[in-house]
What we know:
seven-stranded mixed beta sheet; GTP-bd; 8 helices; binds guanosine-5'-triphosphate; NOG1_N; Nucleolar gtp-binding protein 1-like protein; Rossmann fold; GTP binding
Amino acid sequence: MGALPPFESQLASLTLAALERDGGRSLRDVEADFDLLRRAVVRTGKAATAEASKASSFFEAKELMEAGIKSVEDVFNEQREALDELIQTVGKLRRLPRPVAGEPVLVLVGMPNVGKSSLVTATSTGTPEISNYPFTTRQLKLGHVIGVQGRYQVMDTPGLLARTEDERNPMEGLTLAAVEHLPSAVVYVMDLSGTSGAQSAPLLQLRVREQVRERYPGRPWLDVRTKADLPLADEVLPEAVPHGTLDVSVIDGTNVALLKRRMAQLVGDRGGS
Length: 273
Ligand SMILES: Nc1nc2c(ncn2[C@@H]2O[C@H](COP(=O)(O)OP(=O)(O)OP(=O)(O)O)[C@@H](O)[C@H]2O)c(=O)[nH]1
Ligand SMILES: [Mg+2]
């Protein structure tokens, strides 16, 4: 998979690992079986050609050729399962939803339960085609939006947790791979009301924001505080809220229209990064 672009390569690895986990065979084994089939076909063909070249008459050569073709067919049919299995595995990879090459991707990054998916629903023009990836119950979703300045894609990601890079699970890795490798802009989604659960406590969300921001300093970035219909949690001092954060609520509609415009601007204004 070395020939694939980095994001697609990571997507393929995750999917293959998931197929194996679900009782399928590894791509390496499927490829090894197919290689055995290929070698057997070539070997049989060569042997038949060598036999036919010894023929002393046209008719004998023709008979040997027909027998040779039959033996190649027999070898192929004996092991054709290996080819079917390879075709099936390739088909699964082909059907994976992939971001459209070159089209900007707006990645919603944030901790679990902070309101990322609600924002996607509230800001999408029409119904985005949401495609689910098969490797997890926590899905990475990709929707297409027709914005004022053209098409762009919205990636609704499962939450990032507060932990070091080496502790991250594959889904978190894929979210970050999207930010790193795709022509992306980041909407960092925070719920500072303290109602997203202990795992997504406001101060942890601010810490994860710093971590991701430092890692991708060049990405176009928008900070959004969701659930703005609720007050800030006691532990969050107003000055701790990042400068320029947009307060949004999907419950009372606060700044939803403005957010749509800011999102479109963000993908239109990628500065080639
Ligand atoms: N009060 C209030 N609740 C909200 C708002 N937006 C989302 N919620 C609630 O917050 C909860 C989580 O919202 P989701 O949009 O599923 O959050 P998420 O970040 O996609 O969650 P995961 O995908 O599980 O990480 C839901 O119960 C929503 O109803 C808001 O603006 N105000
Ligand atoms: Mg969600």
